[in-house]
Give the backbone structure.
Amino acid sequence: MTLKSVTIVIPIYNERDNIYVLKNAIHKIFAGLHYKYNILYVDDGSSDGTPGILAKVSQFDDRVEYVSLSRNFGHQAALKAGLDMADGDCVISMDGDMQHPASVLPLLLKQWEEGYDIVNTVRLEDKKLSYFKRKSSRLFYKLINHLSEFEIRAGSADFRLVSRKALDVICSLNEHDPFFRGLVSWIGFSQTHVVYQADERSFGSSKYSFKKMVQLAVRGITSFSIRPLYVAIYPGILISLMSSLYIPYALYSYFAGEAQPGWTSLIVTVSFFSGLQLMLLGIIGMYLGKVTNEVKKRPVYIIKESSLTKIANFI
Ligand code: UDP
Ligand code: MG
């Protein structure tokens, strides 16, 4: 019986001290499982000597491979590099700081064996995480779920298993600015999730600076919602409605001789044009939204399975 293969993709940025600890934890877990596996570290332009360590580790440990990016491109880009290069029958992505416990891997694989193409993970809300991290994460998921048409579960991270079939679809999307949490939810297929308790970071400190967190949030929202583009249409309609009531009043005051000189023309033009401008901005936003969606070139549909060979062969 040939064993199925698993690639574990781990983007790392200045995680020198975690490389050995994590790979050993993974070896320990796989020792009790029946899979072929390899670990693919993606060095995201680290400046702490990570590439040298990875070169050494991969030389002595034939299950460890690595790629080193030419500079720091960010977590999502590093993840994309790893996913593009992964060759397993399924691929697991996880962080390189031990916060994603290796002990969850058998649970992911179990769900895959049961037929799921995507096994997400959901982090239990952790009191150990900083108040700011918990609040900002909750706010982000609330916002993105409100704005986009599909659900990204709060507490999800890029810690998941993806089958070869689903991964080929994700890689074929080839988006310039990928937001994997959104893309994975968007592609469909059979998905499930396992719940886990995040461990403490093993060494070092978070590589997600405030700036990088904001960038990720902006990327998530702009990749999956065009609503902010045409939101101006709503106040535009409201102001137009209000001005349609206010303008007759202003004209009445003018003809009744109650208005100050200049007030009527000012109020009529300001209220009329501000409503019109906002509405036109919203309309431009709608077209821009269509252009944005076209540029992304996401497929109109994705086929999960079919029996189409019969039609192709004209049986
Ligand atoms: N990471 C990366 N490039 C970056 C920032 C982070 O590859 O520019 C990696 C990092 O080394 C870790 C993972 O992404 O393996 C998640 O980052 P981190 O643990 O610092 O984020 P947090 O858990 O604090 O949200
Ligand atoms: Mg972390």
In short: Residues 211 and 217 are 10 Å apart (CA to CA). The chain has two domains: 5-207+298-306, 227-296. The pocket of uridine-5'-diphosphate (ligand 1) is lined by residues 11-13, 15, 44, 72, 74-75, 78, 95-97, 99, 206-208 (CB under 6 Å).
